[in-house]
Amino acid sequence: MAVWKPIYLFLMLLITYVVSINVNAASMSDEEMTKLFIGSWTPDSKDKVSSYGIGEYKIDGTFEFILFQTSECKIPTMRGEGNWIIRNGNLIISSGNVPPSKAIIDKVISITSSEMVLKSADGDLQYRIKSNRCLKKY
Q1: Can you tell me the distance from the alpha carbon of 54 to that of 39, in angstroms, rounded to the nearest whole number?
Q2: Among 23, 35, 125, 138, which one has the highest count of C-beta atoms within 10 angstroms of its own C-beta?
Q3: Is the pTM of this model over 0.90?
Q4: Is 74 exposed, middle or buried (0-12, 13-18, 19+ CB in 10 A)?
Q5: What is the DSSP string of 21-38?
Q6: What is the secondary structure of 34-100 as a DSSP string?
Q7: What pLDDT was estimated at residue 86?
Q8: Which has the closest alpha carbon to 137: 79, 78, 51?
Q9: pLDDT of res. 136
Q10: Of 37, 61, 45, whose CA–CA distance to 130 is shortest?
C-alpha cells in the first residue's frame, strides 16, 4: 500500500496543476478578463478562421488591428480601430459610427495572461496568443 501513496499524491498534484492552468472564463469576472485582455494578440497556429494580423486592446477601451496579406506579415491589407469592452463574459467590439446592434460579439471561452479562446456568433473558435508582433502561422 505504501507504493500507491506517492503515485496518488503525484496524480493529485498533476490534476491540480492542469485545472489551475486551464482558466475557464465562466469563473472569472468581467474586470478580471478585462485586465487579461489588455495588450496585443495574434492568431495562434491552431486558429483556422482568422487572417494573419495583430490586434491591440488598450487600457482606455480602444482597439486597433492590422491584417496582412501573407504569413510574412509585410504587406498590410486592412487597418481598423474601434472600442472594446467585456460584458457578461462577452468581448464586444464596436467601430466608429456603427450602431451597437452591428457590434462584433464573441464569447470568451478561456483566457490566461498568454492565451485566449473566443467563440464567434457563428460558433467558430478563435485561438489567440499574446504577442506584440504578427506571428507567422504554420
Answers
A1: 10
A2: 23
A3: no
A4: exposed
A5: HS-BGGGS-HHHHHHHH-
A6: HHHH-EEEEE-TT-SS--EEEEEE-TTSEEEEEEESSTT--SEEEEEEEEEEEETTEEEEE-TT--G
A7: 97
A8: 51
A9: 56
A10: 37
d(CA 66, CA 91): 18
- 115-119/76-87 β-pairing: unpaired
Q: How far apart are CA 101 and CA 99, in angstroms?
A: 5
Q: How many angstroms separate the CA atoms of 81 and 59, rounded?
A: 14
Q: In the prediction, which pLDDT does 95 show?
A: 83
Set of cell numbers at residue 92: 464586444
What is the pLDDT at residue 19? 41
- Block means of pLDDT (10 residues each) for the chain, 138 residues, are 51 43 73 96 81 90 90 86 95 79 90 95 92 67
Provide the residue type at 134 as one letter: C
pLDDT of residue 18: 40
